[in-house]
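Exam revision sheet. Question 4 asks you to relate a sequence to its structure. Input first:
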Amino acid sequence: MPVPTPDQLTATVDACRDLIRTRFPEGEEGAAAMLLEDGTILTSTAPEVFNASVELCHEVGAFCEAYKLDQAVVASVCLFHRADGSMLVLSPCGVCQERLIQHGPDVLVATAALPATDEIAWRTLREVHPAFWGRVLDSSPWPPGA
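Answer key, structure tokens:
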């Protein structure tokens, strides 16, 4: 899997911010962007639904599009736009980590550079989820010992 360049990571974050600013110029809302192995950047957001139990993560649309294109995800970012104009960095939830793990433990994910909540610290899935349950299975996309 290719290692993303700093310029590619910046472009991925910029694409996410652009989607939020274009689609949601006011109010609080989020979006995601994923960098694929061929350099393509996909963006997506989660539709609002009446029944919160069927909501989707912001990353789902981009994840499905990557699958359709048969491209591996090499980096992923999710941002949340607050009413005051600031943006929070949201690390991938457990479900999104499970989806991204299909692409291996070296996928880069944006996490907040705590204590700053609006600055990005890029980490591998291996760092974010070191005790991934599938590591003990021979059939896992993340081989034992990896």
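Marking note for examiners. The radius of gyration is 15 Å.
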